[in-house]
Structure formats: structure tokens, C-alpha cells
Amino acid sequence: MKVLCLLGSPRPNGNSATIAERFCKTAEDFGAEVQTFLLNRLTYQGCQACMTCKKKLDKCVLTDDLTPVLDAVHGADVLVMASPVYFGEVSSQLKGFIDRTYSYLLPDYPTNPRPCRLPPGKKLLFIQTQGQPDENQFGDIFPRYAYFFKWYGFEDTHLSRACGVMQKNDAARREELLAMAEDTAKKIVGPSS
After folding, report:
1. Under DSSP, is residue 104 helix (H, G, I), strand (E, B) or coil?
2. What is the dihedral angle through the alpha carbons of 141, 18, 80, 110, rounded to the nearest 10 degrees?
3. Please, what are the domains in the chain?
4. For 119-169, what is each residue's pLDDT tens digit?
5. Residue 68 to residues 34, 167, 170, Cα–Cα distance (Å)
6. Is pTM, for the whole model, over 0.90?
7. Which end of the chain is flanked by fewer CB atoms within 10 Å, N or C?
8. Among 140, 167, 122, which Cα is nearest to 18's?
9. CA-CA distance, 157 to 147, in Å (whole number)?
10. Cα–Cα dist 96/108, whole Å
């Protein structure tokens, strides 16, 4: 099983990355092959709304550091997207990737019953960390993105959410969050998955 992990935090050892790292380590223990990209270290643009991916090409026309990331999604069985919440949304680093996934949609996507170029049956893990301890805040983020990724053929979507993790290493100090990451890896890539 191939796991592609996208770290959306500008901090390489931030709270979302800590949870993602525990998930990936556990997935590797189950035999998964893991590839990780720290998006903040890449240089790329957001979607340019040029529509070339619908009119001339079957992929994004932009060639930058995000190109191999977008290509890697095709071969991945599991996509992990990890991000802190910044101003009520995922980080700009992750949002730039998400916007570029528009290139996965076929030209007739509004009417096509299978609107996406990606092979169906992929799994998604969305890791969301937030300094705000109130679970009622920012609970709308995952459902919005899960909707679009289900449209892309991700049939099995999971959320690992950590509230009240503001300071560096907060997630590392909360054993229940690390246990949650391990349990999620067992569900997604374990022997019975």
C-alpha cells in the first residue's frame, strides 16, 4: 500500500506534522510505503484558472515543485493531508495544493457520473490541528474538503483532529493524540483494511 503524506504546516515539526509522522510510522510498521512532502519547502503557484487541464491537457499545465506531488496522488492508495487551522481555514500551503487538484477533473465533470481522472477507491486522512480548544469552532473544514475528495473517488475518508494544541510540541505531549494516529493507521492500512 502506498501512502502519500502532505504536510501543510510551515513548521516541519509542528503539531499537525507530529500527528502525521506517528500515523506514517505506524503505516510503515504495517508494510506501507510512505512518501512525504513538506509543502512549505516547495515553490509553486496556485491554480491559474487557465482551463488548460480541461481544453488541451489531462493534467495541470503549470510545471513547478507541486507537479511531482500532483503526479504522486495518482499512484497513492492513501492520501494524508495535515494542516493547522489558520484564520478558520487550512494553511495556504495546503490550500494551494487543493486548488491545483482541479486538474484531476475531466472536462465534462459537471455531468459525468465519474468526474475524475484519478483511479477510484483511494483513502483520505485529513489531519486538522487547532489552537482553539472548542471543538465547535472550525468543525466545518473537514466536511467541505471530504465532499470534494469523495467527488474525486476517495471512498473512505477519515478525520484526525486535535483541538487546543497551540504551542510547539503540544501534540507530542498528548498521548491520546498519538494513540489516535496509530489507531487510524490500523484502520486504514492495517491487516484487516
Report:
1. helix
2. 20
3. 2-188 (3.40.50.360)
4. 999 999 999 999 999 999 999 999 999 999 998 999 899 999 999 999 989
5. 15, 32, 32
6. yes
7. C
8. 167
9. 9
10. 23
